[in-house]
Design goal:
alpha/beta; 14% strand; 8 helices; seven-stranded parallel β-sheet; Rossmann fold
């Protein structure tokens, strides 16, 4: 099962908002992905702030975990292969849940978010693929700080850096190199300016909400997620 948590820009009581604001919720349910990786997709619609930029989490995160466990118990779901992903606030929510419930997820795909680096130190052995734009004024320095903490704790980090607009086959090859390196933490960067429209790329600036429009379009990263299991060695 894949848990997707949306960003704060679509906090709403309208239950379809998370399904229409990008690919993060729906890409896993496409006919192509379901043919390769049959899976339940849980995409809760959140109507209020559940995490903040200063690394505070609120009680609704526990509600989401209870919902996830209820679904997992109701249906035939492999509890060794439950994954989380999210963008911005959804990424931060994934980090916060991983910290509080360390045995819940087999792996995480973390897009355009950050958390208190000292708090994330406990995730040093988790299977995580992080995608951030170099032009993201919060997530890029924030994730760099967590990566530094993990390296201090002895982790080996697999790094990749490419244009968000690179051809699909080039991105697939770069992702494969990262997978072949075999470390449990993978840190992929989109080169600064490449998540922006070409006319704006030279100016740079805030490349936060533009990054996840590209991150979820890379099949190799989605494929990697489904190879992870709590009963297997990380890949």
């Amino acid at each position: 099962m894949v848990l997707f948590m949306h960003d704060a820009s679509v906090n709403s009581t309208e239950h379809d908002r998370t399904l229409i604001q990008g690919l993060g919720a729906v890409v896993w349910a496409s006919p192509e992905d379901q043919a390769k990786h049959p899976a339940f997709v849980l995409a809760p619609q959140i109507n209020s702030v559940i995490v903040t930029d200063d690394s505070k989490a609120f009680h609704l995160l526990d509600t989401i975990v209870r919902l996830l466990n209820s679904v997992a118990n109701q249906y035939s779901i492999d509890k060794n292969r439950i994954y989380t992903t999210g963008q911005s606030a959804g990424c931060m929510s994934s980090l916060a849940i991983n910290i509080k419930y360390p045995d819940l997820f087999a792996a995480s795909l973390l897009v355009a978010g950050q958390w208190d680096p000292q708090a994330t130190s406990v995730l040093v052995h988790k299977n995580m693929w992080i995608v951030v734009s170099e032009g993201d004024l919060k997530a890029f320095p924030g994730m760099n700080a967590s990566v530094a903490v993990w390296e201090k704790e002895g982790a080996k980090i697999t790094r990749g850096r490419w244009s968000a607009r690179a051809p699909a086959e080039e991105q697939a090859a770069d992702a494969k190199k990262m997978i072949d390196e075999g470390n449990n933490i993978k840190y992929a960067l989109f080169e600064k300016g490449t998540t922006l429209p070409p006319a704006e790329a030279q100016s740079g600036g805030q490349e936060h909400m533009t990054s996840w429009q590209f991150a979820y379009r890379i099949p190799a990263i989605r494929d990697w997620l489904f190879t992870q299991s709590k009963t297997a060695e990380p890949q």
